[in-house]
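haha ok so turns out i had the wrong file open the whole time. this is the CORRECT one, sorry everyone. sequence first:
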Amino acid sequence: DVKSFGTNNTFKISEKADVDFITNLLKHSKYIDETCDGIVDYAITYDDYTYDVLISCSEIRKGNKQAKISDKDMAELERIFDILHWNLY
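then structure:
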């Protein structure tokens, strides 16, 4: 599930390629103890964890650790989230 803090809606990701991309990103990112002060844009629930997506910082937070996300991967995440928003209407 993905929760959008901008709209307060919750989405399910059904496209297999999108699920695979997000799963790989969450599993293989290097989480460190530094955190940014950005605003949480999305929360992804996966495998009993909640991962916060902070677009302004280009990071994903898991608990009190964050992983820096490449511009390319962040752009892909935003593309997926945009599609989820448009499918609502």
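The helical segments are 16-28, 71-86.
again sry for the mixup
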